[in-house]
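Appendix C reproduces, verbatim, an entry submitted by the partner laboratory led by Prof. M.T., so that reviewers can inspect both the input and the predicted structure.
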Amino acid sequence: MSEADAETTSYNPFDLTKVWPHKDFPLIDIGVMELNRNPENYFAEVEQAAFTPANVVPGIGHSPDKMLQMRILSYGDAQRYRIGAINYQPNSIDGPVDDVAHNEPPLNIGDVADRYNHRDGNDDFTQAGDLFRIMPKDEQTRLMDTIAGAMTGVPEDIQRRQIGYFSEADPAYGAGVAERVGVNVA
C-alpha cells in the first residue's frame, strides 16, 4: 500500500483490527524461511539473537502502526533486561555509516502525531460484516452459538448494546445472537 493509498482508504490501515483486502493489496512473497535444525546452544542462537523492530536495515522506515511503535520502544529494553547489553563492536565495516543515501525517507505523518482518537472516522462494522457473510453457514452458526453462550448471565442492557453492534455488521448476525440469548430486538 502506498502512502497515497493509505490516505484514501475508508479505514485506518494501521488499525490492528482491520484487514487490508487482498483483492486490493495482494500478498507479496518475499522468500522462504527454512527451519532445518534445532538450536545447539539455545542462549547463543535464540536468546542472543534479540530481535527488535527498532533494528532495521538503513533506508527502511517504520509505519505509524501504534502496536509497532510500542514494540520499537519496549522490545529493546526487554532484551537488555533479559540478556544484558550486547557488544557488537568491532565489526567488519567500521560500525554504522551516516550516509544520506541510506537514511530512512521521511514519513508524512500528517495529523497522526496529534492527539489520536481511534473512533474518529473509523468504521468498525464493514469488515466484521464482510467476514461474517463469507463464512459458511455452519461457521456462522457456531460463532453465534459461542457468542450467545458467553453472553449468558450478562445484564440485558449490555446484551442489547452488543447485539446492536453485531446488527450493524450484519442484520442476520445480530438477529441470530439475539434469538440465541432470548432478547427481542424487534
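The chain has two domains: 1-122, 126-181. Additional entries are available on request from the coordinating office.
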